[in-house]
Structure formats: structure tokens, C-alpha cells
Amino acid sequence: MGLGEDTYLLGGRALLPGGEFAAADLRLRNGVIAEIEPGLRPASGSAVVEVTGFVMPGLIDAHTHVSWAGREPMPNTWAGVVGRARGNRLRMLAAGVTTIRDVGSLDGVAFEPSGGPACFCANQIVCAVGGHGTETAEAWAGLPKLAREARGADAFRAAVRYQADRGAHLVKLTLNAAELEVTPEEAAAAVNEAHRLGRRVACHASIPDAIDIAIEAGADTIEHGNGATPAQLRRMAAAGIVLVPTAWIFERFLDEARRADAGAVGERAWPPPVEIWEARVAAHREVVSDAVAAGVVLAAGTDAIEGCDPDSLADEILTLHRLGLEPIDALRAATEGGAAALGDPGRGALREGAAADVVVFEASPRDVVRDRIRPAMVFQGYCGHVKAYFYVQA
Ligand SMILES: [Zn+2]
């Protein structure tokens, strides 16, 4: 499809805001959905695509790392890293992911021109000196850094300004690893500076003390949220803080630990023993169901890092379903939930004026979720960019 031309998608059942499907045709133009209603009549000369099945907004991976994901180790050259990020993005798009939120990449790589999903990126991780985000520094020596370390409120503000100056769309702040690493004053300084600059803040908080600090500081999203108590989740719901539970990655680590235990992965310090992962996974399952009960908006994010495939959003959606979400709600965590994490109402929903990011599934949402079925078609055309994309699975 081209800009300035109409593209019609005729004959599908479209997901309407609210979660119901209804017969509706779509007209896409200039990167947005220009019309959505049943019985549209294409003008002669416009492109017409007959679709069968379920038409949904393009999927959003709310927690990814474009340069970090991949089965292979990190390349040791900049060109290699850029190529890895580009390949990852193209794989994501083919899986129906039309928008991503990159919450931490080697300095600059997320800004390299690339095909694939629209990318809202944090650029580097902002963290304490030696904090969570610096673990790979030695292994990736010689490459631009993944994390920008800070100590004290002023340094945290400066680290936030650096990301904004680089062009970051949001700020990623990590508050803890095994223990708390950032003070409430530092977190508040970083969040306030980001908000002053019009950037939302994604807070990595995976212990209850860090979750308290993130809520208190006014974070927009909490990443992982391990150990969140029902009271914390109620505060998050009241404050409109989105939870990105990244449930699949923990299940995956447990699976990996079990295989390592059985001798399948060999001698490695990582992952920690099976019992630790079993306890973590069990606790996190509870967090997800408590979050649903508390009315917290959930966003699907893979946290695919090294060793993981970048196009694994279907695994997170399936995991959310297994943890109790109805299939359609698990999918909506990857559409409306992702848009809520981004703070962008122009995405994640099929409505007039929204981005023309559309996927077509030829199976029911239930089967799509349970069997991790990929979309048969992916349309992408985002506003403000001279870019339009139409992809049909081979
Ligand atoms: Zn992450």
C-alpha cells in the first residue's frame, strides 16, 4: 500500500474497543485508519485486500531490547550490533508486532535506521553505579554502553537528560537487582526530570521495596513487579501505573533451570537452582492474578534478551492466558495494554485516526493464543513517517 492511496481490507471481523468482534471493513490511508465500518465501497483504482478471519490492531511488545535479543552472543562490532537489531526488528514485524517499546539498548543502536516495528525507545538504562544494567559491561567491553550509571539526585537527572538529548522517547530506570540500589530521592529526581522533559518512565522493580519507590516516585509503568502485594497493586491501579509482568521470561528461566538440572545445558552459574525459580514463578503467578483482581492494566512484554528469540510475544500472550486471562484479554494486553504502557491512545485499537497497524488472523483468538498462531497478514503504516508496510506470510 502506498501513502496517499486508499487500501481497503474487506470482509473480516474486526476487534472493536471493548473487546468484541464485529463485521467491519477498514480503509487505510496516509498511515492511519481512515474508516472502519461494515459495507465500505472501494473507489475504483484503490487497493483492495479480501481478508478472512479476525482483524486486530498490530501487536505491541511493551518490553523488549532490540540489540540484546537473539540466540547468538552479542557481536563485538558496532556494525554487527546494528545488524542484529535490524534482524530482530524484522522478525518481530513478521510475527505481527508493529510497535515496540525498547527499554534498554546499547547507546545509540535503537536510533539506527531500520525496518520493522515503530520503535519507542529508552536508549540506555539509567541505574545506580554498578547497578542493574551493568552486568554485561565486561562481556561487551569495546561497544557503546547499555547502562548510564548515576549516584545522587543530580547525577540521575543528568543521566535522564542524556537519554532525552539522544532522542529517547521514554526513560528506563532500574531500581534493584537482588537488593535495592536506588534511593527514593534519586528515583524521584529521575522521574521528575523525565516528566519535565515529556518522557514517560519505565521502572524496573522486582522486589517489593523497589515497587514502593516506583509508585511513590510516580513511575508510569512498572517492569516485572515481582513480589507486588495486593495493596501495592491497588495503589498502582488507582495511580494508572501499568504493569508489564514479563511473565514468560520467568517461566522460561524455570524451564531452563530444570533442563540444566537434568544436565541438558551443562555447567553454568546461570540460571540459579530450580527451587529458586520455582518459588519465583509461583510468586509471580500470584502477582499476575492479584493484578487482574486489583484492576491494574497489564501490558505484554517479552524481555527477550540474549539466548531468546526476539519474536516471542506469542509466548508472553500464551503465558498470560495460562495465568488466568481469557484469550482475548491476553491478546488485548498486547494491543490496548501496550498502548497504555506507551501512553499513546493512537495505537493498540482499531478506530478512525489510529495508526494503520493491523494484523489479520485466520484462526479464532482462542486458537491464536493457545497455538501461538502468527497473523496471515501484517499491515503497518505509521503516522508522520514516509513508510507503509504490507506483509503476507509465505
Ligand atoms: Zn528488560
Automatic annotation (TrEMBL):
Residues 54-365 form the Amidohydrolase-related domain. One of its GO terms (molecular function) is hydrolase activity, acting on carbon-nitrogen (but not peptide) bonds. InterPro entries: Amidohydro-rel, Metal-dep_hydrolase_composite, Metal_Hydrolase, Metallo-dep_Hydrolase. PANTHER family: ALPHA-D-RIBOSE 1-METHYLPHOSPHONATE 5-TRIPHOSPHATE DIPHOSPHATASE (PTHR43135). This is Peptidase M38.
